[in-house]
Amino acid sequence: MERKVSTFELKIGMHVSNLDRPWLDTPFLLQGFIISGDDDITALQQHCKFVYIDIEKGDEATSYMDEKPNLPSSEYVEDFLEGGKKRVDYEEKQSAFHELPAAETALEIASDKVAMLMDNLKAGENLDIGAVRNAVQPILESVIRNSDALLWVSEMQKKDAYTYSHSLDNCSLAIAFGRHLGLYKEDLRNLAMGLLLMDVGKVKVADEILNKTGTLSVEEFEEMKNHVYYGVNLLRNTPGINETIINVVLTHHERFDGSGYPSGLKGKEVPVYGRIAAIIDCYTAMTGNSTYRTAIAPHKALQTIYNWRNKYFQDELVEQFLQCLGVYPTGSLVEMSSGEVGMIMSQNRVQRLKPKIMMLLNENKKPYDVSKIVDLTIEATDSSGLELSIISGLQSGAYGIDPTTVLED
Asked: What CATH fold (topology level) applies to the domain 75-325?
């Protein structure tokens, strides 16, 4: 029986039955052989990204690249999506404004810890799952107290490294979405750790591929996709990891219609946390800048995800995701019927089109000397007595607004 294995996982005693390229393109004389020494492993790693081993003729590997997730992952979420009650109905224990300082501190602590974790992994050190848990904990506590403050702060933080900031955005949004779904605190932590570690395998992908500004070649894209396997392999060799976290890393690029990778899983073959991760990862990728993509406005990203329901993403999960974030997500810029421009500060969970907004520009698109906060459930008219409402969402950076300076005012 053949199994697909990363060459990083090869050991003496395995029977190599096939390569990721024709045998004639390599120096190996035999088409199929037992690995007898470190020289064989080194040669295979120099010429191949992965190989196939026959586990009936030689030793098995610790993990495989054709691995399938262990199901089920969360029967509760499946039941909830079919119309059940929330397991936990979290209350806002703090207003978004008063939670801001703690949210800023939580994100700074997590950012430092994640950067250190990734740097250590690149240097060849083992993953410290305790450090991952410590990075997640302050974010978890902040989002439990208030689900808006940290998402707002995250939008306004300086993004020094795409991979790190993307991982933190995924983690924060996972907790907010899991909170909305009513997950227990421990389940929130597992989901968040899975989202934080989704792209951990990219430490094994060459920087020239990760940072390439143009279109990836077929070979480069195949290597980029291998980050899923590299990540799973890292986790399989990490003491204290649980299967929920591994499932998230393994399945976050699977799609509901079976068009994803690495295994082309379809529908509920994908663990529900993997289905959640796919939506979040897509949203944060569309709303964040990278070397190969310019960010789009959050409301447009939500519209795109809505259009992909029952294709790439499960319809019921998409509906809940939109309910969680609101029509105009926290941290996004909006233009008002008065001509003013503001940033969504917190959501109104009952009246989705009436959030709390920090007004940044007046009707002439000039900055206010002192930003003012408007709650649309209370202040329903503008200075002329006309109804005040949001007329459109705006691209991040519209009218020259630098989100990183908003909290400095």
From this structure: Hypothetical protein af1432 (1.10.3210)
